[in-house]
Write a structure and sequence with these properties.
Elements (H helix, E strand, L loop, with lengths): L10 E6 L4 E8 L2 E9 L1 H5 L6 H23 L8 E7 L3 H18 L3 E5 H12 L7 E6 L4 E8 L2 E7 L5 H11 L6 H9 L22 H17 L5 H26 L4 E5 L6 H11 L5 E3 L3 H4 L4 H12 L22
Parallel strand pairs: 1-4, 4-5, 6-9, 9-10
Antiparallel strand pairs: 1-2, 2-3, 6-7, 7-8
Helix pairs in contact: 2-3, 4-11, 5-6, 5-7, 5-8, 6-8, 8-9
The protein binds 5'-O-[(R)-(carboxyoxy)(hydroxy)phosphoryl]adenosine and zinc ion.
């Protein structure tokens, strides 16, 4: 029980700073009033990936302006906010600490409550912003730079992981393959773009796991690396678009197949995708196409809500508050790792 559980016009100001996006959003009863994202992608591109220390410093530089911009866009004042929500983990510790410290300062200054939010749960909750009709139970396919999991979402606050990755996360594999192909960071959108002009004609390995719902991306990634090295040694030119397309097809088919398998075994006819990789058009299309014959409906957030943003953090805070979750207090700390199941 919390004192906002039944409040009308519940207004949440959320802050997200777990990786290389500094973001703030204001949601009222689950609807976006205003949001602002400052991305550091161009800065980290110089290094081929996120440099944690540089990320934290840039969060410090931009967070105040980002929050002010979101509040202005929402056409509210800070006094209209009922609660401050902030990503408490998982993510880069230094980056998370910037958001958590700023949020605590704001909560203290405004004398408002604060609630720490699990970033990956936020990715899942991004679906609720645009799809109020999305009903539990459903199968959740969670695919980001650090997570690949297929879960049975029994209610908005209770899920069970049924399959997870044995090695690399799916987004991580996209990023690593992109680097081998000489594409800039972040690799996922670059692979997707390049794959559009290629054909999936290069054979890729099909991994069989002990738990058929588990994933493995390291074999797929290694197959691409070996293909490139072999061609280099032989002095043969590779068709990068075909390679990107073949990798992407194998990667998204594994995701789609596992999600459908779980849905069928649980007799569930809804799948929702979440996380940065959910922005991938091939994944959305493949899953929708494969799910249709089984009368399974597929949900995904719009692309800008798939990658890191603060609206998803506010959306998860809304779920938590309405379900009666306890608030945090000013001892709230950032955590680099969190359990998707137990750390709400
Ligand atoms: O969820 P996210 O923004 O950050 C984490 O919480 O990890 O996910 C980032 C990951 C990166 O690996 C990025 O390459 C991947 O999502 N990604 C994509 C696409 N857009 C982002 N992967 C494939 N296709 C995309 N269009
Ligand atoms: Zn994320």
């Amino acid at each position: 029980m919390n004192n906002l559980q039944n409040k009308e016009n519940l207004t949440i100001l959320a802050i997200e700073s777990s990786c290389d996006e500094t973001a703030c959003a204001i949601l009222r009863d689950g609807e976006i009033l205003g949001e602002c994202i400052s991305t550091q992608i161009e800065i980290h591109r110089l290094y081929g990936g996120v440099v944690p220390e540089i990320a934290s410093r840039n969060h410090v530089l931009s967070i105040d302006a980002v929050v002010k911009d979101a509040v202005n866009k929402a056409k509210i004042t800070l006094n209209d906010v009922d609660i401050i929500a902030v990503t408490k983990g998982a993510g880069l510790l230094g980056s998370l600490l910037v958001g958590v410290s700023y949020a605590k300062g704001l909560a203290f200054a405004l004398n408002k409550p604060i609630i720490g939010i699990n970033h990956i749960r936020g990715h899942i909750a991004a679906n609720y912003i645009e799809h109020p009709d999305l009903q539990t139970p459903y199968v959740g396919l969670i695919v980001s730079g650090g997570h690949s999991a297929v879960a049975l979402v029994k209610s908005k606050t209770h899920l069970e992981i049924k399959g997870t990755t044995a090695d690399d996360a799916c987004g991580e594999a996209f990023d690593k393959v992109a680097r081998v192909l000489g594409l800039p960071y972040p690799g996922g959108p670059e692979i997707e773009k390049l794959a559009k002009s290629g054909n999936p004609i290069i054979p890729m390995p099909h991994v069989k796991m002990k738990n058929p719902l588990d994933f493995s991306y390291s074999g797929l990634k290694t197959a691409v690396i070996n293909y490139v090295h072999n061609a280099e040694q032989k002095g043969v030119e590779i068709n990068k678009a075909d390679l990107a397309c073949s990798f992407q097809k194998a990667a998204v088919e594994m995701l789609a197949d596992h999600a459908i398998e779980l849905a069928l075994s649980e007799n569930i006819n809804i799948i929702a995708i979440a996380g940065g990789v959910a922005a991938n058009g091939a994944l959305r299309d493949t899953l929708t196409l494969k799910a249709a014959p089984h009368n399974i409906k597929v949900y995904y957030p719009s692309k800008r809500l798939c990658t890191d943003n603060a609206s998803m953090i506010a959306s998860e805070a809304y779920v938590q508050i309405r379900s009666g979750a306890e608030f945090s207090d000013l001892t709230l700390d950032a955590r680099a790792t969190l359990s998707l199941v137990t750390d709400c």
